[in-house]
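Batch job 17 of 40 flagged for manual review because the log was empty.
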Amino acid sequence: MPITRFRREATPTLIRFLADRCGGVAPILGLGLVPLLGAVGAAVDYSRAGAIRTAMQRPRSTRRR
């Protein structure tokens, strides 16, 4: 599908979606949940990477056997 045809067909739909004020809670919640879960996942990965990095930098002589 050429981009011009897509733009021509999608623009009215997008305008109707943005103008509609009925029952907008569920779609907005659904759209907002995606980046929120992505940010939470990134924060968990970042904190785990920091913990692993700290553990790797700890000298071997201080580790208990």
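Reviewer: the log was empty due to a logging misconfiguration, but the result itself is present. Residues 47 and 53 are 10 Å apart (CA to CA). Unflagging and moving on to job 18.
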